[in-house]
Structure formats: C-alpha cells, structure tokens
Specification:
alpha+beta, 4-stranded antiparallel beta sheet, 4 strands, 37% helix, 13% strand
C-alpha cells in the first residue's frame, strides 16, 4: 500500500487513536488562526488530489471556518413584521449545507479565483473547518493544462454561488439518479413551474393544429374531418346556385 492509501484509511477511521489525536491538536491550532487562511499544501493530500488538486502554479488551497448549527433569522430583537406564519426566529434549517457556505466565503474573498471543489478537514463544538481548492483562471500554467483549463471559461464564474460545485449539487438533490429524482432536474423550482403553470397561447395553438405524419401528410382522423367539411361546404354552394336559377321566384 502506498502512502496515500494509509492517509485515506486515517481519514476514514475518524474514531481511531491516531485520527482523534491529530484532530484534537489541529482543532486547537485552527482556533488560533483567522477564519480564512491560505495554505502552502492541503491537510489531506489524498482527498485533495481525488477532487482535482495539483501541486502546480495557479492552484491554491484555502481553509475556511464556518459556524455550526442551524440558521437563525436575521431580524432585529427577534421581531418579524409580517404574518404569524413567518414569525419563527430560531429552529430554522438552512437550505444550503455548510460546505457550500464555506465555498461561498472563499469565493467572495478571492473574487478572481474559481472554486474547484472542497472537503471537510476538522470540527469542534462551535465550528466546522473545510479546505477549498481554488484555481487562477488567468495563470498560464492553468490555461495550458488540457485537463484543467475548462474552468477558465467565463461560464464558470462563481460556480459556488450558483450551486454548480459538488456541494451545491448535493443540496439541490442532483447527486441521485432513478425514481423520484426526475423532480429535481433541472431544478425543483423549474419542475414546479412546469407542472403548475397554465399553457401559453402558442402552446394552445400548436395543440389545435392537425397532426402531420412522417412525410407531412395529415393524420387519418384529421384528414377525414377535413374531407367531410369540404363535402358539406360544396353541398351548400350547390344549393345556393340552384336557388338562384332563372324562372324561379327570386329576382335576377
């Protein structure tokens, strides 16, 4: 087994003596530092490499501290000026997970970098600590890397704010597949809008048009209806001509 495999086992067995000792020592160290710190190398190299980290220019790692617990409504003195249904202040659960919040903190602080991925490193009774892998899209070493330069595209600006990173897709319910997960794609809000909104005028007109076959022919039922309507119109025109023949009571 290589060194990365040993490190992976330490990360899995968090209740082992070695892992608990390291976590306790590192948690004390992290508490003495600011909430966002740039690192010279990742604390878990095996995990970072699995998530896309490379020890090269243009790729950096930041450790971010996020306060644990649920979300509290940000209102002054606990007063919500609205209906009683919205007056709860505590015991509210945030929609986004803490890892995504850590990515947002790093992305806002370092606006010129792109968030590649993140992972958990430690926690205590008050905080959770995550390490965020970030990439400089303007660095030559990154732009020349065929496996990494996809993140230089402008569509990947602030991926963490739009729920496109792995942590973002997790809280959006996009990590699963199969029965029931179709209600989450492309998003829960888009599916709800599609299932509850009324059809537009263009959709209604398209539904009234006769369906055409593979080569452009009108379907059998629609064609029969069209032919029947044509016969009825021809019969009415013939009756009108007979009524206007000379010698009848009608004036010319």
């Amino acid at each position: 087994m290589g060194a990365y495999k040993y490190m992976e086992e330490f990360g899995r067995r968090k209740q082992g003596d070695v892992s608990r000792f390291l976590s306790r020592m590192r948690a004390w160290e992290y508490r003495q530092l600011p909430g966002l710190v740039r690192l010279t190398h990742p604390s878990r190299p095996d995990k970072a490499r699995r998530l896309g980290y490379k020890a090269k220019q243009g790729v950096v790692v930041y450790r971010v501290r996020v306060r644990r617990g649920g979300r509290k409504r940000p209102v002054s003195k606990g007063i919500v000026y609205g209906k009683p249904v919205h007056q709860g202040v505590t015991k509210l659960k945030p929609k986004r997970n803490l890892r995504n919040q850590a990515e947002e903190k790093a992305g806002r602080r370092c606006g010129g970098l792109r968030v590649l991925n993140s992972y958990w490193v430690n926690q205590d009774s008050v905080y959770k600590y995550f390490e965020v892998i970030m990439v400089d899209p303007m660095h030559t070493a990154v732009r020349n890397d065929a496996r990494l330069n996809w993140i230089c595209d402008p569509t990947h600006k602030h991926r963490e704010l739009r729920g496109i990173t792995s942590a973002g897709k997790k809280y959006r319910g996009l990590h699963g597949k199969g029965h029931g997960y179709g209600k989450n794609r492309p998003s829960v809000r888009a599916v709800l809008r599609k299932n509850t909104s009324l059809p537009s005028a263009a959709t209604a007109r398209a539904a009234r048009r006769p369906r055409r076959g593979r080569r452009g022919e009108v379907g059998a039922a629609d064609g029969a209806a069209a032919r029947g309507g044509g016969r009825r119109a021809a019969g009415k025109r013939a009756a009108g001509q007979e009524a206007r023949l000379p010698g009848m009571c009608h004036r010319e």
